[in-house]
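Schema walk-through. Below, the input block comes first and the output block second. Nothing else is stored per chain. Lengths vary across the set, and this one has 145 residues.
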Amino acid sequence: MMTAAQSIVQKAAIPAMKGLVAMPVLDSVKEHLLVTTKVNEHIAKTLVDQQTAGADLISSTFCTLHKIPLYKMNPPVTLQMTMKGSRGSLTHYVIVQLDWLGYLEERTMLVAALKDWDIVLGSPALWNMKAVINMGTMTVSIQPP
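--- output ---
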């Protein structure tokens, strides 16, 4: 029996990719590439964003809700956003167990006030997992180390 991911890859006439393929959870209003992951065994709405450079982010609300221990950073890290003059200061980080498609990995993430997502997987995680993002089919494939 063919999985939904295999079906989409075949319909798009692209060669099947090695590794694990994540089916997106489409944000119907904003059309961001979202996937479902688990963090410390809790389901997390996760944004895949290769433009988030230098760190992966986790929502402070998600941390509070799931009682994930925070660790203070000294000095704080400045989060620079794309809008000119828009930035914030991040003061805490967490160490979590990330489960993406059954691949478990311990990840360090910076705690931020995220409005729409629980997790932002940025370039560190995507690079480490050798992620291939296909915007045509809205799929992400990972090839864990």
